[in-house]
Structure prediction request, 198 residues.
Amino acid sequence: MKISEATFAGSSTRVSQKPKRTLPEFAFIGRSNVGKSSLINSLCGNKKLAMTSATPGKTKVVNHFLINDSWYLVDLPGYGYAKLDRKGREELAAVIRDYITGSEEMVLLFVLIDSRHDIGKIDLDFLAELGEHGIPFAIIMTKCDKQGPNVLAAQLERDREILLQQWEELPPVFCSSSQTHQGREEILDYIGSLLETV
Ligand code: GTP
Ligand code: MG
Prediction:
């Protein structure tokens, strides 16, 4: 699938405020600073669509982008941003929980994980919560341009093993880079194949 048109469709902090037009939604989440907004821009071929920043905690609301006038791509706030105070963290967690458990149009949640480190407890806990709620997800490893191929392959294998301690089978796992656009075709084709089933 190719994205020929991507436009900002609105920000919300609760599902009740999201765009009224009902279309299939594909959402992106992960730790703060993992590269969600950058990946969305890479997928859409537009560097300015979603705001990116070297400072974690940039995205604090749910942003809907209308794609090809037929589905929404959804940028969610990051989880686990340590520098927020407790109230700020709880509010972000509420925004995330409300969307992922309440949005009936969400077809799939892409969980982004930084390819440079072992999957952390915070990611594993988040995935476990998805399992408890029966929320379908796939995994995208981000920033795959930052390491050489051998180091990257070893890290991916370690992450597979960590995941398999918790899960009987793995969901689809994609490798991506918003710098080189690695993974873009695969991720978009996967979305395209799911769109044919809804
Ligand atoms: P929050 O909205 O704060 O949760 O962050 P985010 O997950 O949306 O991350 P964002 O896309 O803003 O990227 C964070 C930083 O990582 C920025 O400085 C990006 O330029 C950098 N970055 C993101 N993706 C990549 C990538 O694939 N390769 C490289 N080299 N840098 C990346
Ligand atoms: Mg962001």
Q: What stands out?
A: Residues 6-195 form a domain with the Rossmann fold fold (CATH 3.40.50.300). Residues 100 and 106 are 8 Å apart (CA to CA).
